[in-house]
Amino acid sequence: MTIGAEKPHKSRKCKQPSDEKSALLLPDRHDNDENAAQEFDGASFTGAVFNLSTTIIGAGIMALPATMKVLGLGLGVGLIVFVAIMTEASLEMLLRFSKVGESVSYGGVMEDAFGRVGRLVFQICILVNNVGILIVYMIIIGDVLSGSSSNGVHHVGVLEGWFGEHWWAGRAFVLFVITIAVFAPLACLKRIDSLRYSSTIAVALAVVFLVITAGIAIIKLFNGSIAMPRILPKVTGITSVWKLFTVVPVLVTAFICHYNVHSIGNELEDSSLIKPVVRTSLVLCFSVYIMTSFFGFLLFGDSTLDDVLANFDTNLGIPYSSLLNDVVRISYALHLVLVFPIIFYPLRLNMDDLLFPSSGPLASDNCRFSLLSISLISLTFFGANFIPSIWDVFQFTGATAVVCIGFIFPASITLKDPHGIATKKDKILSVFMIVLAVFSNLMAIYSNVSALFGKK
Questions:
Q1: What is the pLDDT of residues 173-228, one digit of tens each?
Q2: Which spans are transmembrane here (predicted)?
Q3: How far is CA 246 from CA 59, 436, 447, in A?
Q4: Are the CB atoms for 399 and 445 separated by under 8 Å?
Q5: What angle do CA 400, 132, 432 make, to 5 degrees?
Q6: Would you say residue 69 lies in a domain?
Q7: Could you say which residues of the chain have pLDDT below 50?
Q8: Are the C-beta atoms of 395 and 153 separated by less than 8 Å?
Q9: Tally of domains within the chain
Q10: Is residue 264 part of a domain?
């Protein structure tokens, strides 16, 4: 499938602009920046799959067991399947209109359908979504290393468990050191394909988390120390019905990857492989999600916390419990550290296009590049230190920006049909997607706002 302005052919030599914005967001600058281009052979299929899978498998996986606690195992797994199918459909729509309109970015497709206003709305949603996700990553890393408090209970972090309470083990200092030593250097890489090796490691670390969790759950199931979890949700009144909708933003956030599909496709050695890349990544991530949700909820049941990693601070009732707790938490914290630059990549590009739409290539302006990078990393750092729970972030970003990026925008483009390629089936599916997304997320917002004021 063609997503770039140039027609791809097998084993082509890619010309990758030194400025990501010219490739991802501003196709009209592509031809003007030929002198700034650097030759590279193009990204491989495997590298693209790992980069897209890393975009998908982020912090959302940690909140999925908590969705099973709300929905029950049967309904929860069913909704994961449903959201995966809807995600594949929305990506197919997006890529099809990209090909016809010769757009090299999601923002370009939005501008093709709705003009500059469409591009602007999309970029604002990207800022809300990606900043929210990066804040969630930092919150989880802080929870793992420095501990967290939930419902008046303190969950000990790895550093506190190893060395006791010290000022240098506090959340703010630990996150500051990780930001300076790890996030900042990784976030400054110029090409998304440069992250393929770190993405491979990130996916492997997620699998490590899954294997250990599954192993512990199976051992405890066979020795009779845990029971099979409930299949259906607990419904005791209208309030519990509204609460069911609060999981929708979490499920939507778990599959969001639309903002990186074009940048990954633009760098492929053969751009027509982007569809198989998308399908392979979705199958891989869907499998990981199903198993993580099942075994995480099986292991902790109704004691499952919003961030399931926080559950790994107690005696699991098996040999080497303490060691396994630390391995699980540290492996996933490292996973999130490696996912951070994948999410940061489109965030900086969109912020640059939003604030400096008439500027030259971003990579050639060190001052602007540094200013944007420092500002955005600082924003996520302070957000992670002042927002108490990942569930709070998931609820409000997932119910607004994420649902727009993942479902409402692709469906709206299809209904607008600027090139007359949408079928009747496409338009029926688009209407269904928009109505369902708007209704379920309005209910989620209502339920969360009610719960928030109820606590106060």
A1: 989 999 998 888 887 776 777 777 888 888 888 888 889 989 998 988 888 888 77
A2: 45-64, 70-91, 120-140, 168-189, 201-222, 242-261, 282-301, 330-348, 369-387, 393-415, 427-446
A3: 17, 14, 7
A4: yes
A5: 25
A6: yes
A7: 1-38
A8: no
A9: 1
A10: yes
- For 153, the 3-state DSSP assignment is strand
Which CATH number is 38's domain given? 1.20.1740.10
The contacts of residue 363 (CB under 8 Å, 6+ apart) are 17, 18, 19, 20, 36, 190, 369
Q: Is the dihedral of CA 83, 86, 92, 97 positive or negative?
A: negative
Residue with tokens 């067991």: 65
Q: What is the residue whose two structure tokens read 């090796």?
A: 197
**To which H or E segment does residue 148 belong?**
strand 148-150
pTM of the predicted protein model: 0.78
Please check whether residue 4 lies inside any domain of the structure: no
Is 200 a domain residue? yes
The secondary structure of residue 181, as a DSSP letter, is I
Residue 119 in contact with residue 259, Cβ under 8 Å?
Answer: no
Domain of 45, in residue numbers:
14-455
* Contacts of residue 324, Cβ cutoff 8 Å, sequence gap at least 6: 212, 216, 312, 316, 318
Query: For residue 295, what are its two tokens?
Result: 């075994």
> The tokens of 204 are what?
């492997």
Q: What angle do CA 341, 342, 346 make, to 5 degrees?
A: 100
Radius of gyration of the chain (CA): 22
> Which two three-digit tokens encode residue 293?
């949700």
Task: List, in sequence order, every residue forming a beta bridge with 14; answer none if it has no partner.
Answer: 40
What was the pLDDT predicted at 31?
37
Output the furthest CA–CA distance in the chain (Å, rounded).
67
With vertex at residue 432, the alpha carbon angle to CA 428 and CA 438, rounded to the nearest 5 degrees, is: 145
Separation of first and last alpha carbons in the chain: 52
What does the alpha-carbon distance between residue 223 and residue 221 come to, in Å, rounded to a whole number?
A: 6
Alpha carbons 393 and 380: distance in angstroms, whole number: 12
Cα 56 to its chain centre, rounded Å, is: 5
Separation in Å, CA 27 to CA 7, 110, 262, 362: 14, 13, 12, 14
Burial of 29 (C-beta count, 10 Å sphere; 0-12/13-18/19+): middle
Question: Six-digit token pair at 40?
Answer: 């590279």
Are residues 93 and 410 in contact, defined by beta-carbon separation less than 8 angstroms?
Answer: yes
